[in-house]
Specification:
The protein is α+β, with helices and mostly antiparallel strands and 498 residues long. It folds into three domains: 9-66 and 189-241 and 475-497, 3-Layer(aba) Sandwich (D-Maltodextrin-Binding Protein, domain 2), CATH 3.40.190; 71-174, Dipeptide-binding Protein, Domain 1 (Dipeptide-binding Protein, domain 1), CATH 3.90.76.10; 263-469, Dipeptide-binding Protein, domain 3 (Roll). 28% of the residues lie in helices and 22% in strands. It has 15 helices and 19 strands. The strands form four sheets. Strands 1, 8, 9, 10, 11, 12, 13, 14, 15, 16 and 17 form an eleven-stranded mixed β-sheet that branches. Strands 4-5-7-6 form a four-stranded antiparallel β-sheet, with helices on one face. Strands 2-3 form a two-stranded antiparallel ribbon. The longest helix is centred in the last third of the chain and has 17 residues, at 443-459. The chain is globular and about 65 Å long. The two termini are 44 Å apart. 52% of the residues are buried. Residues 1-25 form the signal peptide. InterPro entries: Peptide/Ni-bd, SBP_5, SBP_5_dom. It comes from Saccharothrix longispora. Residues 81-418 form the Solute-binding protein family domain. Keywords: Signal.
């Protein structure tokens, strides 16, 4: 098995200090007094789309509490008020949302039903559109202080959809004639985004006019630090107050008082290209599945800080384990006989290259000839979505967008899904996902979701290996940071330094 060779302590300190000196935000105008009131945050991934809210960058805006949505989600995934104070379903296809009064955007303009409609209309027209809108025909119009949302077919999850950070409501000034979106100074949250330095740093100041009350921290100084060792070292050295996604290899080196571990709806999955290459053959996909020892990955790569996957949905959704049944009708494994495959992953999450190395060894033991490709995510996503690789190791959040797994199942595994790395197009899967999407919230919907999961697993297009945990680093001076399994919230109105 592929094992780590830790750096000697002195080498680790020297290497970390060199990395930290060059990548953490330093405000030359900060004084000793106001620096203590600002949260220094080390984040995993830099912006990939200029912080466009229609991309995954939206989750950064959400975690910084600068951009907000009409609807919020509680810990159980139930919809609650946000920039909308309430809503009601007026017909099979229509929902009515009442816009919160007295809210002002960071540019000084008021939040209105028209501004909310502007955001939703632009999101529908965006290319690519937000994942939460995959397969959804949605229109919005303003009626007084209300936003009327209409869908092409009955959709019981419209409120949950509008909680997606990719549908955050920004001021009209955010939207440019060329179709780009600039979130600087255009949100509604307790922190106002004031500057973005490319893929290096971002600066947010407290927005004293926030409708939900004055934030306790003076601001947030963000540094984008893809190197996991550097993020962990930042907590030890005091260069950061909060570090997201601490690698498991570094967690044991930190003071236990600075580490929090929470099961999360994130699955480490091997996606197999079903459209081109050797894995068009379901028998070879089955052979790949049988070659993988997920327990080996959990014990060796994740040092026990993960859970072996029984399906696509993990322990952060307890109902999934309670109602899951084994998929039937899987193809029998056929001998690989030296079939050449390209196995790819990205380096932003420190464990993934090591997972790929272990998988390469096991797949070669099973008879595949494996070439491995590892790049930063920003430089590999396009090729992965274009089907350039035979196999791709992905750490994937399964309820990130709506608190409901259907959006993930649709985007990743249906014929027209926008994130279909496996290039899967299976009528039975599409029908199962459609059935789940139309089911009302509750036990019936959960059963339909598990039936759709089983339909995907039957194809072996995706082989779930393990469920990750949030490993977050917080300096002992930090009070009230969020430990959110869905990775939507991090610094809140109540987060502050002792």
């Amino acid at each position: 098995m592929h094992l780590r060779s830790p750096l000697p302590a002195l080498a680790l300190v020297v290497a970390s200090s060199l990395v930290l000196g060059g990548c953490f935000a330093q405000d030359p105008n900060a004084t000793a007094g106001d620096a203590g009131g600002r949260i220094k945050l080390a984040m995993l991934q830099p912006p990939r789309s200029g912080l466009s809210p229609f991309s995954d960058d939206a989750f950064k805006l959400s975690r910084w509490s600068t951009a907000e949505t009409l609807v919020t989600l509680d810990a159980d995934g139930n919809a609650g008020p946000g920039l909308a104070t309430g809503w009601r379903r007026t017909s099979d296809l229509a929902w009515e949302f009442t816009v919160r009064p007295g809210v002002t955007f960071h540019d000084g303009t008021p939040l209105t039903a028209d501004s909310a409609v502007n955001t939703l209309t632009r999101a529908v027209a965006a290319s690519p559109k937000p994942r939460i809108l995959d397969g959804v025909a949605l229109t919005a119009r303003a009626e007084g202080d209300r936003v009327v949302v209409t869908t092409g077919e009955p959709d019981p999850l419209v409120p949950q959809r509008l909680s997606s950070p990719q549908l955050a409501i920004l001021a009209a000034s955010a939207y440019r004639p060329d179709g780009s979106v600039d979130p600087v100074g255009t949100g509604t949250g307790p922190f106002r985004l004031v500057a973005v330095n490319g893929t290096t740093t971002a600066t947010l100041d407290r927005h004293d006019g926030y409708w939900g009350g004055r934030a306790r921290a003076a601001g947030i100084d963000v540094s984008f630090v893809p190197d996991g060792t550097a993020r962990a070292a930042a907590i030890r050295s005091g260069e950061a107050h909060i570090a997201e996604a601490v690698p498991v290899s570094q967690a044991a080196l930190l003071d236990p008082a600075t580490i929090t571990e929470v099961p999360m709806p994130r699955t480490n999955t091997l996606y197999l290209n079903t459209q081109a290459g050797p894995f068009r053959d379901a028998g070879l996909r089955a052979a790949a599945r049988e070659a993988i020892d997920a327990g080996e990955l959990v014990r060796g790569v994740y040092e026990g800080r993960a859970d072996v996957a029984a399906g696509l949905l993990g322990p952060a959704l307890p109902w999934a384990a309670e109602g899951r049944t084994a998929p039937t009708g899987r193809a029998a494994a056929t001998p690989p006989r030296g079939a050449a495959i390209t196995l790819a992953t990205f380096s932003d999450r420190a464990e993934l290259p090591e997972v790929a190395s272990v998988l390469q060894q096991r797949l070669e033991d099973a008879g595949f000839a494996v070439e491995q490709v590892v790049r930063e995510y920003a430089h590999i996503e396009e090729d992965a979505l274009a089907g350039e690789f035979d196999a791709f190791v992905l750490s994937r959040a399964t309820v990130l967008d709506s608190g409901d797994p259907v959006a993930y199942l649709r985007s990743d595994f249906t014929c027209d899904g926008s994130f279909n790395i496996a290039r899967l197009c299976d009528p039975a899967v599409d029908e199962a996902v459609r059935t789940a999407s139309l089911a009302e919230a509750g036990d019936g919907r959960r059963a339909a979701i598990l039936a759709a999961e089983a339909a995907v697993l039957r194809t072996d297009a995706a082989i779930p290996m393990l469920h990750e945990r949030v490993v977050q680093g917080d300096a002992t001076s930090v009070v009230g940071s969020a430990k959110d399994p869905r990775e939507r919230v991090l610094v809140t109105v109540d987060t502050h330094l002792r």
